[in-house]
Amino acid sequence: MKSFDYYLQKQRIAAVCPWIVSGATVLDIGSADGALFEALGSHIARGIGIDPDVPAETTIGRYTLMPGMVPDTELPAAAFDCITMLAVLEHIPHASQQALVEYCYGRLKDGGRVVITVPSPLVDIILVCLR
């Protein structure tokens, strides 16, 4: 990632963190390198991140990163307090979005929440200018 991408990632993480309760179990769809989990630190009980660019399943402290794509990736039997998608939804084809909803619903605890960020269209204009 480039420095502007890291800046945007930090902004998304800052927007999401207040919605994740202390002691939560978190599923991060599109987790990249686990930056959300690093930011949350001991605030969460456990986290699982899924991303197609993760080379192999890796556990780091309280979280595990897994290679894969949703909704095709099977998880250990678990329910999560929070499922996050930071700048991911816009990459999911419309035809697959219902399957994504069902995937999330089937893995969310009662009273849990799904937290999604979607980039502003202005970001595309900024990125074009920076290129």
Structural write-up:
This protein has 131 residues and is an alpha/beta fold. The chain has one domain (3-130): 3-Layer(aba) Sandwich (Rossmann fold). Helices cover 30% and strands 30% of the residues. The chain contains 4 helices and 6 strands; from the N terminus they run H-E-H-E-E-E-E-H-E-H. The protein has helices at residues 3-16, 35-40, 97-105, 121-130; strands at residues 24-29, 44-51, 58-60, 63-67, 80-86, 108-117. A 6-stranded mixed sheet has the order 3-4-2-1-5-6. It is globular, with a radius of gyration of 15 Å. It starts with a helix and ends with a helix. The model has no long low-confidence stretch (mean pLDDT 88).
Key terms:
6 strands; 131 residues; six-stranded mixed β-sheet; 30% helix; alpha/beta; Rossmann fold
